[in-house]
Amino acid sequence: MAEIRPFQALRYNSQLVSPSQVVTQPYDKITPATQERYYAASPYNLVRIILGRREPSDNTVENVYSRAAAFAHDWRERDILRRDSDPSIYACSQTFTSPTDGTKHERRGFVALGRVEDYSARVVFRHEQTLAKPKADRLDLLRATRTHFEQLFLLYEHSGEIDSLIAPKPGTPPTIDVTDEYGVENRVWQISDPAIVAAIQKAMADKKLVIADGHHRYETALNFRNENRGAADASVRGNATGTNPDVHDPDAPYEFVMLTFVNMNDPGLIVLPTHRIVHSLNSFSADEFQRAAREFFEIEVIDAALDAAQATELLRARGRTGTAFLAVTANRIYLLRSTKAPASKFFHGLSPQQQSLDVVQLHKCLLEGVLRLSEESIRNQENLSYLRDAAEAIAQVRKGEADIAFLMNPCPVQKVRDIAFAGEVMPQKSTDFYPKLLSGLTAYALD
């Protein structure tokens, strides 16, 4: 049972700051150059909290997390960040142009609190593995600020009733209206009517939720909840007798996290491919790669003069009947295809459903099997990087900056759902839901 609640969002005061100068992309999409640009945009840009600069003098007392907490406290004291007076759910819309084909889309959803659930409860489902280091970083930030400043992106499946409930009435101006650096127009409407809020809660009550983006932050919320439950238990044991220490306050603020919900059937829900670039190998031979890859795939040498648009169109067409990749080397392009999962010892422990995924076949057969990259090196991105832009991936190989690039088709949302509901996972960077949710539109303070 998915339990959602309205909340009094912490929001930037538009009378004192311009929203376009203070919002950011999610922390894990912020490059060093982007960080500097955000710092220059405004002294109140959210980057100072979610991904502040590290200083040589940092120690266990003074560091990025203590500075983030100080900024958050100061901005609230100065009314830069202001809490809404009414518990609300926040309808949101992103209007954007697809970077793959130039078509115009709108993706709708809403922001609310959701109860933090263990995966074993089968309410919230993941589809990707997580790493310890990013979770430790986000947990330190959450401990310091006691505020969820960024959105977690979750999917639910519904025929449309919820979409009609959150749709603003014609002519209703948005509460927030900001266009980001990628030309995505982000709008938010505050919904405070208790009857509408209750109807949304009722409609969501039987929904299963799939994490689209934010696996590390969701598991950070889980760890933070458990940490606070442990502290509450210790307090009960130390100050009372005859009390069951395993009974937790279900309404404690740390039992909830701020989530953005989007219908899986939303026509504006777009998944982009994430291409793989392999670099810094001790040795690489295109001929040897071609020979070894034939164990798993049919291989066709295609015109090496194809540009990125032509290559991705060919890949899309060939992928309609099975798995397809393009492998780009310094002066060749190979089309790799299969109509069923190839037999491979590298699939040990994986279900047939996982084996059918393009990304699993790429990782297991080609990265591990042919190029001999270990699972650990792939997790640590020692010889592997990821790019959304096919032209840039091809350019890196052509300039000698990489040994080989693999261009991929996107993973359909239905496959993401099926993998998640089966309790299975995909390799990292298997999905790229576009556009990203802006950070800084709403925040959830736990005090």
Give a topology summary.
Layout (H helix, E strand, L loop, with lengths): L3 E2 L4 E3 L6 H4 L9 H10 L5 H4 L13 H14 L3 E3 L5 E9 L6 E12 L8 E2 L6 H14 L1 E2 L3 E5 L4 H6 L9 E4 L5 E7 L2 H11 L4 E5 L1 H25 L16 E8 L6 E3 L2 E4 L7 H8 L4 E5 L5 H11 L4 E6 L4 E6 L13 H4 L2 H13 L4 H5 L4 E4 L2 H9 L5 E4 L5 H9 L10 E3 L9 E2 L2
Parallel strand pairs: 6-11, 8-12
Antiparallel strand pairs: 1-5, 2-3, 4-5, 4-10, 5-12, 7-21, 8-11, 9-10, 13-20, 14-18, 14-19, 15-17, 16-17, 16-19
Give a verbal description of the structure.
The protein has 447 residues and is of the alpha+beta class. It has 15 helices and 21 strands. The strands form five sheets. Strands 1, 4, 5, 6, 8, 9, 10, 11 and 12 form a nine-stranded mixed beta sheet that branches. The model has no long low-confidence stretch (mean pLDDT 95).
Distance between the termini: 26 Å
Q: Structural class, judged by helices and strands?
A: alpha+beta
Radius of gyration over all CA atoms, rounded: 23 Å
Output the number of helix runs. Answer: 15
Report the count of strand segments.
Answer: 21
Main sheet: strands, sense, barrel: 9 strands, mixed
General shape: globular
Quick synopsis:
The protein has 447 residues and is of the alpha+beta class. Helix content is 33%, strand content 22%.
Supply database-style keywords.
447 residues, 15 helices, alpha+beta, 6-stranded antiparallel beta sheet, single chain
